[in-house]
Write a structure and sequence with these properties.
about 250 residues; 5 helices; alpha/beta; Aspartate Aminotransferase, domain 1; globular; 2 domains; three-stranded antiparallel beta sheet
Length: about 250
């Protein structure tokens, strides 16, 4: 089968799908639904004209409803939105089972796992137990639709502060594909003022807000707003951002 590899530049936007050139003979089309480093998220499901669609949804799984019938394969590490590290959710179309390459490790052969009810090897019991609790919590709180509404509310709150800051806070991501899970921004300028950003992080830490430092490859600030982050948590960050801006 044909293979086409392509990437988008700059990493802060997703070009209009009409400009994409997908190989119609490809075995599958793969994409990462939410890119956490730059804070870019697909708010649509790509049209592949019949080619099997595969997606890594590790960082936004169950943060919104998804029509799984449009996908051949969805996989997601649980550690962002549905549990702790150590377990991966796989949703695979049954006709795709049984086509693993000969050198595929047996524990990664989805047909083997499906035939063995995910019990081919000793399962990570604690991680599965925690995921079960989180899934119950999501269900009892309105399901993925309720998570979507909450995540829109949280992320919009932070983006609105950025947009109204007259350049004090700068988010480099195009507004059409800004992530609801990971909100990156710089302080003081588009490139960021290192002194201001260090001061912001120190002040946030004193207020009990940690892990706000941006990824080492891009720097700046990054607020991750996964399902477990409450509206009150987002409000606390928003309040601090307003106070910090007023002080500077």
């Amino acid at each position: 089968s044909g293979l086409t590899l392509f990437c988008f530049s700059p990493a802060s936007e997703i070009p209009d799908p009409s400009s994409w050139t997908l190989n119609p003979s490809a075995s599958y089309v793969y994409y990462c639904c939410n890119e956490t480093v730059h804070g870019v998220e697909y708010n649509f499901t790509p049209e592949t004209n019949g080619v099997t669609l595969v997606s890594d949804m590790s960082s936004n799984f169950l943060s919104r409803p998804v029509d799984v019938s449009k996908f051949g394969l969805i996989f997601a590490g649980a550690q962002k939105n549905v549990g702790c590290a150590g377990v991966t959710v796989v949703i695979v179309r049954e006709d795709l089972l049984g086509h693993a390459l000969n050198d595929c490790p047996i524990v990664l052969n989805y047909k083997v796992q499906a035939d063995m009810n995910s019990l081919y090897n000793t399962p990570p019991c604690f991680s599965i137990y925690i995921m079960g609790l989180v899934l119950e919590w999501i269900k009892n709180n309105g399901g993925s639709a309720a998570m979507e509404a909450l995540n829109k509310q949280k992320s919009s709150m932070i983006y609105d502060i950025i947009n109204a800051s007259n350049g004090f806070y700068e988010c480099p991501v195009d507004e059409t594909c800004r992530s609801r899970m990971n909100v990156p921004f710089h302080i003081g300028s588009k490139e960021g003022d290192e002194g201001l950003e260090k001061e912001f992080l120190a002040g946030a830490s004193k207020r009990g807000m940690i892990s706000l430092k941006g990824h080492r490859s891009v720097g700046g600030i990054r607020a991750s707003l996964y399902n477990a982050v409450t509206l009150e948590d987002a409000e606390a960050l928003g309040t601090y951002m307003k106070v910090f801006m007023k002080e500077h």
